[in-house]
Amino acid sequence: MSKLSGRMGHMGRMGLIGLIGPICLIGLMTVTSHAQLRSGQGWAWQNPLPQGNPLNAIHFAKDKLSGFAVGNDNTILRTQDGGFTWQRQSLPLDLTISSVYVRNKETAVVVGARGAIYFTDDGGRHWLPAKTDAKDHLYSVTFAQRIGWATGTYGRILKSIDGGESWTSQPAGTDEHLAKVTALDNQTAAVGGMNGAVLTTLDGGTTWKHSKPCGGARISGIAFLSAKSVFVVGYAGCVARSDDSGETWARINTFSRSDFRIRRPDRWPTRTEWYGLPATAGSHGCPSMFELILDSPRSTWAITLPAGRSVRMGLSFDPMTAVTAGSV
After folding, report:
1. Architecture of domain 135-229
2. Can you give the pTM of this predicted structure?
């Protein structure tokens, strides 16, 4: 009896090992498969949907329905219903896309690695390369009507006067990496970047004024509230404001060392959601970042996001509707 019990115990252990082996193998295959799920031939995203590559930027047309989200591994997503459903698109080249600007429901411009600039005038069915001689990585793009600016590494500033089909370089007077650009109109624009660099122009980019309102802290957001009023935010709790179009700056004490990002004044999200995970104003837990919300020249709000959830870009259409893009 004892031999039989020992043998059965041994067989049980062997059976358990035999069962665990396939489970571990399946687990390994699942992890490996998940790591390899990209846009390559033969692979298709199952969860999350419509895809799972990190997203770097999101932007909507003025109709609040047509928008694009862009990210790593040649990721372009398009929505025509305000963000409820998304369709996958791609560029002819496999590269990281850093920023997108949607001029209307059919026209958009994206920028990314190695100086890539592509535009579409048919809702993304076809993406065409823009004319440019830039080879620097490009981080941000913006437009004021048909006038556009794009910024990137080593002080690169590009300007377009034809809606994004062609671009020429402008002298920036700096070799800092320029990560953010915003424009109020075809003459007024501002740029922010590494080591606290802030550049402003009032003449369409012919000349740029240099300043460092955040010292050496990285500038992570910049926005115009009017032709005179400009806000910049950065890492280590920096918030600064200019009331003379960037000539002089005043620091705002936030009593925080958190890294800040910025939203446009008319886009206050009371509830944002990414992969079904909500992050509401005043949510508890350890904040991973703050977002400074600009509502008027004299009013600001901030929201926190729970640790482990990174929102790189977002916007809101009204007090109950918001769309964000990022990674978890």
Report:
1. Beta Barrel (2.40)
2. 0.73
